Amino acid sequence: MDIEQARFYMIEQQLRPAEVLDPAALEAVSLVRRERFVAPAQQALAFADVALPLPGGRKMLTPIVAGRLLQAAAPKRGENVLLIGTGSGYLAALLAVHATSVRVVEADPVLVSLARANLAHAGVANVTVEEADGLQGDAAHGPYDLIVASGAVLEVPAAWLTQLKPGGRLLACVGSAPVLSVRLYTPAGGSRALFETSVDALRTPAAAFAF
Questions:
Q1: pTM above 0.90, yes or no
Q2: Contacts of 40 (CB under 8 A, 6+ apart)
Q3: Measuring CA to CA, which residue among 56, 106, 66, 120 is closest to residue 90?
């Protein structure tokens, strides 16, 4: 497989038709080596529009979903970002291209170890991954300019909103399967719907959502 050609086709044939057009988002997708976040046995599908399996029955975000979330989040230089749920570490790496720092909280210790290893292999130095209950956010290291939830919730926990800086923003997938609404929230709790998608429910030690 020609890796760079596959990456080019992923951008041109998947992301652009899905209206991922922001130059900063496309730059991040070009720079982050997605193949380094995919298991060796899955390398042939690294750039396919497929939710590849992860340990514990989880799934990696497809390139389109990751790209749309990244574009909606729009991290900027100087911003500190909190990511709730790590998956393979790929979304954290995308956010880290333009953010100053990304802190990730993940309830599954296996995924914590996997994401740490993948991020180190990819040479991403400004991401920290910790094992914690994502529903509680990470008040000890906040407040944050941007909080992104990579898993779905029935409603946004109040704790997340209190950990935003004034003028900060929260991007979350809210609702029930099969269709979830990606919404952008302000610290006061106001929100607007951006697009619909389908992702795994956020897994936490305190609660298991059945979507």
A1: yes
A2: none
A3: 66
